[in-house]
Amino acid sequence: INAEYMGKRVFKFGGASVKDAQSIANVAHVLKTEGHQDVCMVVSAMGKTTNVMEVVVADYFKAKTDNKDVVEVVNQSIAPVVDFHRAIIDELFGDRADQVRVDIERMFDEIVGFITWNKSLNKSFIYDQIVGYGELLSTRIISAYLAEVGVDNTWYDVRTLIKTDDSYRDATVNWEATAEKVSSLKEAKELMVTQGFLGSDTNNFTTTLGREGSDYTAAILAYALEASSVSIWKDVPGVLNADPRYFTDTQLLHQISYREAIELAFYGASVIHPKTLQPLQRRAIPLHVRSFIDLSAKGTTVTGGAALVPQVPCFIVKKNQVLLELATQDFSFMVEQHFGKLFNLFAKYRLKVDLIQNSAISFKVCLDNRFEGIDGLLPELEAEFKVNCHKGVSLYTIRHFDENSLNVIPRDERILVEQRTDQTLQVVTYSEEKS
C-alpha cells in the first residue's frame, strides 16, 4: 500500500471550488480520481456566500438601530442567499431534491428563529450565529449530491467536533476537548463531509475561527485524526511567489518548508492561513496545495526540508493598512513603559502589528485594522502621544530579496518606512493619488 494512504487524508475545498453546480460536479470528479476512502473533506461556503451573509448581519444591526421589523429586513436581505442555493439544488438534483430542499429550508428557518429570539447585543456573537450557516448549507447540498453520484459519505456537523472558547469571530481551539470528540472518527473508512471555519463554545453556540479559517479547520482535524496529509484544492496551480493580481511574472514554488511558509503567512501571503501551519508542523503532516482544474499537476508541498524550491524572491502586499507615527509630547525618550502601554492598547482594539520601527523619541508602527479598532484607539493615544496617522497605506514584504526587488513598487507610491533584515525587506508606501 502506498504510505500516503496509511491514516486519513484531509481534503479542503474552498468557496471557489464549490461556487456553482458545475464546480460541485468537479469536486465529485476529484474525489473519484484521487480516491475517497479514509478521507475527511472540509468544505467552505459556496462562492461569495460569506460576504453576502455579512451583509445580512449588517442589515440586521441597521434594522435594530432604525427600529424596523428585523425579521422582515433579514428575510429580504437573505433572499439572494436562498435563491442562490435553491438554484444550485435545482441544477444538481432536478426533481429528486425533496430531502435536500427540506434540510435547506429548515436551516433558513433556523436563521430567522435566531433573529427572533436573540437578545444579545454582542456583535461578534451575532455574526457567528448567522454567518456560520454558509458552510452548513454548502456541505448539506454537497453531501447529498455526492451520495447521488455514488460517492458514499457521512455528513458531520463540525461544531460537535471542534470545541473552542467564546472569542466569537476569532475563537481559540480547545485542543484537548477537540481531540476527544474527534478520536472516535479515526476508524471511519467512509468519506467524512464537514464544514470549515466553524466550531462551538462550551454552551454549544457557534464560533468562527477567523476569516479564511477553513484551512485552519483542515489542519485542526488533521492534527486530531493524526492524518497522513492535508490537500488544499484551489483554482491556482499551487503556491506562487507573488499574488498575480498585484505582481507580474509570478513563479510556482514546488516546495516550501513549514518555517518559510509560516514566515510568508505571517507577512500576509494569502495562500495559507497562518494558524494552519503550526498544528501540521507539530505532527510533521505534509500540506499539498493543488489545482482542482488540473489533477495531473503536482502543485506545492509544504513539509520539512529546503526553505524554498526554487529559491526566488517572494513578494507580498497588504493594502489598506494604517501607519502610526508616535512621539512623546515632551520629546522625552520612548521607553519600555511606553511600549508596554502601546502593545496593550493594540491588543485591546484587536490591531495586528505588522512592522515596528523606533528611534530615541519616535515610534512607527504599521497595523492591520481588520477589526476596525483604529478609531477607538486614536483618542486614547492622543491623550499621551503626538500622533500622526496615515490610513490606506500599503505594506510590501519581500522575502529573499535581491537588488532588483524594489522595482516591483509602483512609481506613484511614496515610501514612508523601509526596513531590512538579512532575509526580509519591508516597505510601507502611500499612493500619492489618494492624498
Structure overview:
The protein has twelve helices and 19 strands. Strand 3, helix 7 and strand 4 form a beta-alpha-beta unit. With 435 residues, the protein is of the alpha/beta class. The chain is globular. Helix content is 37%, strand content 25%.
Topology:
Elements: E1 9-13, H1 21-34, E2 39-43, H2 49-65, H3 70-93, H4 98-117, H5 123-131, H6 133-148, E3 153-155, H7 175-183, E4 191-195, E5 198-200, E6 206-208, H8 214-225, E7 229-234, E8 239-240, E9 252-253, E10 255-257, H9 258-266, H10 274-283, E11 287-291, E12 300-303, E13 308-309, E14 314-328, H11 336-348, E15 352-358, E16 362-368, H12 374-382, E17 385-399, E18 413-420, E19 424-431
Parallel strand pairs: 1-2, 1-7, 2-4, 3-4, 7-11, 10-12
Antiparallel strand pairs: 5-6, 8-9, 10-13, 11-12, 14-16, 14-17, 15-16, 17-19, 18-19
Key descriptive features of the protein:
12 helices, disordered N terminus, globular, six-stranded antiparallel β-sheet, 19 strands, alpha/beta, single chain, 435 residues
Q: What gyration radius follows from the Cα positions, in whole Å?
A: 23 Å
Strand order of the largest sheet: 3-4-2-1-7-11-12-10-13
**Bulk shape:** globular
User: What is the helical fraction, as a range of percent?
Assistant: 25-40%
Q: Quickly give the structural class.
A: alpha/beta
Strand tally:
19
If helices are DSSP runs of H or I spanning 4 or more residues, what is the number of helices? 12
Mean pLDDT: 93
